[in-house]
Amino acid sequence: MTEVFKGSFTQQEPIPEDGIAAALDVLRHGRLHRYNLAPGEDGEVALLEREFAAYVGARYALAVASGGYALATALRAVGVKPGDKVLTNAFTLAPVPGAIASVNAVPVFVGVTEDLVIDLDDLEAKAGEASVLMLSHMRGHICDMDRLMEVCNRAGITVIEDCAHTMGAAWKGVPSGRHGLVGCYSTQTYKHMNSGEGGFLVTDDDEVMARAVMLSGSYMLYGRHGTVPPEEVFARVKYETPNVSGRMDNLRAAILRPQLAKLDDQCAAWNARYGAVEDGLRGTPGLTVVARPEAERYVGSSIQFLLLDWPDAAVADVIDRCKARGVELKWFGGAEPTGFTSRYDSWRYAPSERMPKSDRVLKGIVDMRLPLTFSLDDCALIARIIRAEAGAVWQEQAA
Ligand SMILES: *Cc1c(COP(=O)(O)O)cnc(C)c1O
């Protein structure tokens, strides 16, 4: 009998009941705007900012309208100007080069390795070209952060981390987003906490946070934030920092606070699912499971494997066969981007030289989401289906 998987790759878990109750409270009192507070009230957004700052061990956290907004705000807050070059990953999601383009800066793409992290040799070679790196921990893969920070410190490069897929992750025990000057996170539905849309920016830097708060649209109400630098820091920036409105509201914050409280449990649940698929795929001929370094504490909310050096038609065949059995894989190497774009050559507003070593990797990356609505049995079944179909296509190729 041919096994077929019936689950949905886009169905997340419901919002926890305590989040629903907190959201109803906000709806009933009607004070959704973060600065609309009753006497003595802190507000859900300010409380969330305090809790998130404590969670990642940052001095300051700012809750905003989206992850992409956090990235653009970070670029503005560290002083990126129109025409400046910004180093970033050749393998990331469209909002990352998009944030750079939104401040009229120019992305300079750095290659990807077979471990799906930024190519640190390529970064070293390009380090002289820019003074800011927007580092994307794409699909949750964390590079050797010690070497990355050494390269960037030596070259005087400011690091902004895109942690859309690494909320809850760490390198050598240091939370992702806490190696660079600024860390940015997303709470969009497909990330690790779900408020539909939303994001965070964290830093220890007084000036960067004061500017980010002003940029996010605080008017002169920044004193109502959860974590803010002293007044004298605002005095230096408040008249010369534009309001680029992008605040979070109390309704989303109310939904997020209970999710933050159980984030570590959720991460463990993702990793159990990741492990089940990884175990099932290991040893499949022609298929490379991505190695995860000892120093990396990752969150397996998606899984990637490589079909390195397979002909395009064979990869497409694996994708089609798996789809026919209910397993939705995304192929980043397809000639035309479908659904979303993750490859430097898709962003034609930012021209780049070809990167043959990265192209080889990008052509072979296959990606799959692992929503927590999947059981461990589901994950084992999915792995059996991929293994069987990739194996069949592999044998056809050999014949
Ligand atoms: C989702 C995502 C973002 C942007 O987050 P939004 O909240 O959707 O704006 C940035 N980087 C990566 C790698 C992402 O996957």
Automatic annotation (TrEMBL):
Listed SUPFAM superfamilies: PLP-dependent transferases
Organism: Roseovarius indicus
PANTHER family membership: DTDP-4-AMINO-4,6-DIDEOXYGALACTOSE TRANSAMINASE, TRANSAMINASE
Name this polypeptide is given: Aminotransferase
Family from the record: Belongs to the DegT/DnrJ/EryC1 family.
Signal peptide: none
Keywords from the named record: Aminotransferase, Pyridoxal phosphate, Transferase
Transmembrane segments: none
InterPro entries per record: DegT/StrS_aminotransferase, PyrdxlP-dep_Trfase, PyrdxlP-dep_Trfase_major, PyrdxlP-dep_Trfase_small
Enzyme nomenclature, EC number: 2.6.1.50
GO molecular function, one term: glutamine-scyllo-inositol transaminase activity
Pfam name, any one: DegT_DnrJ_EryC1
Single GO BP term: polysaccharide biosynthetic process
Gene3D superfamilies for the chain: Aspartate Aminotransferase, domain 1, Type I PLP-dependent aspartate aminotransferase-like (Major domain)
